[in-house]
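Exercise 7. Given the encoded structure of a 146-residue chain, write a plausible sequence.
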């Protein structure tokens, strides 16, 4: 049974309708909370605090990937940022992981990629893309290798 999700706004994806689904994998553990935020259309406010178009949050219970589906009402370029609060403390810290659509390379010096490096074009059909979580390992950031 899937874990409960909180959605903002409260809309579901409908079969055959435009949507962006991200399948998030590569988690470092099976605990905490995972939050996915949709940005777009266009990247004018990409990663600006509180400027996401939609947000879905889910508690992590058990292993495996998590899917987040965002209904899209207007064609354009969209990106999804994912954050794993790996220790469930409700704060962003060095133990947390992150990921983006199109899986751009991250580093401790560049935690926020450009919108163009993460954007996915959505037209009139559902799109599904993978997101691989990345975590800090010393001064490096990359997949957990788990």
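Solution.
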């Amino acid at each position: 049974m899937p874990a409960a999700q909180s959605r903002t706004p409260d809309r579901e994806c409908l079969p055959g309708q435009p949507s962006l689904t991200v399948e998030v994998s590569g988690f470092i553990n099976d605990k905490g909370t995972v939050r996915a935020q949709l940005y777009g259309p266009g990247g004018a406010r990409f990663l600006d605090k509180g400027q996401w178009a939609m947000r879905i949050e889910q508690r992590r219970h058990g292993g495996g990937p998590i899917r987040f589906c965002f209904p899209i009402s207007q064609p354009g370029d969209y990106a999804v940022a994912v954050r794993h609060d790996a220790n469930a403390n409700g704060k962003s810290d060095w133990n947390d992981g992150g990921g983006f659509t199109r899986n751009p390379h991250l580093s401790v010096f560049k935690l926020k990629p450009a919108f163009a490096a993460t954007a996915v074009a959505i037209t009139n059909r559902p799109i599904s893309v993978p997101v691989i979580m990345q975590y800090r390992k010393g001064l490096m950031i990359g997949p957990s290798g788990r």
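Remark. The mean pLDDT is 90. Students should compare their own answers with the one above.
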